[in-house]
Design brief:
Layout: H1 2-24, E1 26-33, H2 44-49, E2 53-60, H3 63-71, E3 77-81, H4 82-90, E4 96-105, E5 107-112, E6 127-130, H5 135-146, E7 155-158, H6 164-172, E8 177-181, H7 184-190, E9 194-196, E10 209-216, H8 217-222, H9 224-242, H10 245-256, H11 260-266, E11 270-272, H12 278-290, H13 300-305, H14 309-315
Parallel strand pairs: 1-2, 1-3, 6-7, 6-8
Antiparallel strand pairs: 3-10, 4-10, 4-11, 5-8, 5-9
Length: 325
């Protein structure tokens, strides 16, 4: 009888502890883009749970959709393109903080086999597929214009999120190339209908920065511990995949539905990276303004919104070591 009472008490304690642990899990609404170089985001829910955070995950396709989700309070934490920081600033949305990087690179100009372009001006008169207002399109237009090309002479055709339609259009000759993110470019290369252009849309002072993690500023102020748990998950998931290429490829393949061959082709085109690049971000926002993408210079948004404190706390590294000025 005594043993039974002890067992019952122990069982009740364990059950109570489990309930308390479950109750301690704080819900955070989170969204990211389904891309091969966001494989670290595909593991966020798993790692966040270890730090008391229950991530309610929403995978989306485009940065434009993610920006809308943040500005309309549909999510608390989101992965955006660095370029979106300038677009939000221009639209006077300032209720956010940028708390870490996610990845760099991962988007390219692909040309149809047989189409040649050694300089940006060589693209004049050609037709390219793009996702309207996507980071890839904005970066392409900015880089091409600053390199001397007349953007008005480069025709663009909308393909939304890319995928089979843009590959089919390339194969049929309806477009001469496209500017997209992976795995679209790798799909064309593996399918032998296109090739990676030598014209690098990230060959500029931005150094190909791409994705960053932002949080609703009010949510951060009220739920700092939960957001700290999200940042811990960011660092841990990124480190785990960078240390294990096989797992990285497996997660990316499962998360995007791409073939192993496409994933293998895509992976070297980008890098998982939680550092937050301040100087390069300012260069990007200055560049898109000079190219006429934004009507005002939005570089002031970088110093105001970049918050290194959580990343510094999690990693023990200095702001400079984490990409700050």
């Amino acid at each position: 009888m005594g043993r039974m009472l002890k067992f019952s008490a122990a069982f009740a304690f364990a059950l109570l502890a489990g309930i308390t642990s479950a109750q301690a899990q704080q819900k955070v609404r989170f969204a990211y883009a389904v891309q091969i170089h966001q494989a670290n985001m595909m593991l966020m829910q798993e790692y966040a749970k270890k730090h008391g955070v229950d991530l309610e995950v929403t995978p989306l396709r485009r940065y434009a959709d993610l920006q809308l989700a943040l500005t309309t309070n549909q999510v608390d934490v989101v992965v955006l393109g660095y370029v979106n920081l300038g677009l939000m600033e221009e639209n006077a949305f300032r209720n956010h903080k940028v708390i870490g990087g996610v990845f760099t690179g991962g988007q390219s100009l692909t040309l149809r086999n047989g189409v040649q372009a050694k300089t940006w001006k060589d693209l004049e008169g050609k037709t390219l597929g793009t996702a309207p207002n996507s980071y890839a399109e904005l970066l392409f237009k900015s880089t091409a214009k600053l390199a001397g090309a007349d953007i008005s002479k480069i025709k663009t055709v909308s393909f939304g999120g890319g995928g089979p339609p843009v590959i089919a259009a390339l194969r049929a000759g309806d477009i001469d190339g496209f500017v997209f993110w992976e795995p679209n470019n790798a799909d064309a290369a593996i399918g032998k209908v296109g090739y990676y252009s030598s014209l690098d849309i990230g060959d500029n002072p931005t150094k190909h920065i791409n994705g960053a993690m932002a949080v609703n500023a009010d949510f951060l102020a009220k739920n700092r511990n939960a957001v700290l748990g999200v940042v811990r998950a960011l660092v841990e998931s990124t480190d785990a995949l960078n240390a294990n290429p096989a797992r990285y490829a497996e997660v990316a393949q499962k998360g995007t539905g791409s073939t192993p061959e496409v994933v293998k082709e895509s992976l070297p085109r980008g890098k998982l990276d939680y550092k937050l690049y301040q100087k390069e971000a300012k260069a990007l926002l200055r560049m898109i303004h000079e190219a006429g993408i934004t009507k005002i210079d939005t570089t002031a948004a970088i110093d105001r919104t970049f918050d290194y404190s959580l990343l510094m706390q999690v990693t023990g590294k200095s702001k400079k070591d984490l990409g700050g000025e």
